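To the wet lab folks,

You asked to see what we're planning to order before we commit. Fair enough. Below is the target structure as tokens, and below that is the sequence we designed to fit it. If anything looks off to you, flag it before the synthesis order goes out.
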């Protein structure tokens, strides 16, 4: 996977609320998205576009990944979201999040529209990335084609709330196991499917929101499950969730140190001793161990460990 921007914590900010937008500047997240979709009421969407453009142009976002979630391609809002935001603030925008993606065609539409606007306004063509939300049964069945649909793609984002609704899941708590499902993890298949499609195409995989925002321990548990699988980060909805996400999606200091040690030991073993397998303490290392260590070391370096 190439060098992608760090997205351990991705803050969701309702674009219709200028107070929240202002507050977002002070939060230590890797990324944020100004939301024109589900956190923005239909009657507020037009004004919210202007708030988005102003907020991006004003700057003050540090090194964070600056993202806007537009409405999905089946809505009457989507095209104007893209045109207003990118014409107004394309130079101050890193990515667009496209929700409810159900086929590669949705991504092609956005890619083409972005290229047209970039050409018309003199922006670098192809610089603005796309993040695709996979949040219903159709999106999941098409996930490989979606992941391959454009070089602009940077991540696949799991949308648990819409997904649970799309499956008719008998549950009202987003991120928790559905009541009555006592064995295993009801979301394991979905998460692994998205993660595998993302990795097959060099993309990041981002977990969606956990809605009981005051229960930080539960957020941590929910994040730890996807971090363990390999997900790169998670949406955060509240300041309380930010620190937890930044911690959970980075390796522990101990694991990071061990990963660097493995890389050193294995480099020495292959280059100096000309051996492909080597002992480090009581563990045997080979080329696959080096690859695993590279992942942990990469996440640690990105987190500044
Ligand atoms: C996010 O968009 C979700 O549906 O969970
Ligand atoms: Mg959704």
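Sequence we intend to order:
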């Amino acid at each position: 996977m190439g060098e992608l921007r760090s997205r351990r914590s991705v803050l969701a900010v309702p674009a219709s609320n200028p107070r929240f937008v202002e507050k977002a500047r002070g939060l230590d997240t890797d990324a944020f998205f100004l939301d024109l979709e589900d956190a923005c009421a239909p009657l507020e969407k037009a004004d919210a576009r202007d708030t988005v453009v102003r907020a991006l142009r004003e700057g003050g976002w540090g090194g964070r990944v600056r993202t806007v979630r537009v409405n999905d391609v089946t809505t009457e809002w989507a095209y104007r979201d893209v045109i207003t935001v990118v014409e107004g603030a394309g130079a101050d925008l890193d990515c667009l999040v496209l929700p409810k993606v159900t086929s590669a065609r949705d991504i092609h539409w956005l890619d083409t529209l972005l290229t047209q606007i970039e050409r018309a306004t003199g922006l670098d063509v192809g610089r603005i990335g796309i993040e695709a939300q996979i949040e219903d049964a159709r999106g999941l069945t098409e996930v490989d084609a979606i992941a391959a649909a454009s070089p602009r793609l940077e991540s696949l984002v799991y949308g648990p709330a819409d997904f649970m609704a799309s499956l008719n899941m008998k549950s009202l708590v987003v991120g928790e196991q559905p009541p009555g499902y006592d064995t295993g993890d009801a979301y394991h298949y979905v998460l692994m499917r998205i993660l595998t499609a993302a990795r097959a195409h060099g993309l990041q995989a981002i977990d969606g929101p956990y809605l009981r925002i005051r229960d930080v321990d539960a957020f941590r548990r929910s994040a730890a499950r996807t971090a363990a699988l390999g997900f790169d980060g998670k949406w955060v909805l509240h300041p309380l969730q930010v620190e937890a996400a930044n911690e959970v999606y980075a390796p522990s200091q101990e694991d990071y140190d061990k990963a660097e040690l493995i890389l050193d030991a294995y480099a020495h073993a292959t280059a100096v001793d000309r051996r492909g397998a080597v002992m480090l303490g009581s563990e045997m290392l080979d080329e696959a161990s080096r690859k695993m260590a590279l992942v942990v070391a990469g996440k640690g370096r990105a987190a500044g460990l």
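Structural context that might help your review: Residues 253-271 form the longest helix (19 residues). The pocket of glyoxylic acid (ligand 1) is lined by residues 99, 133, 135, 159-162, 208-209 (CB under 6 Å).

Thanks,
Computational group
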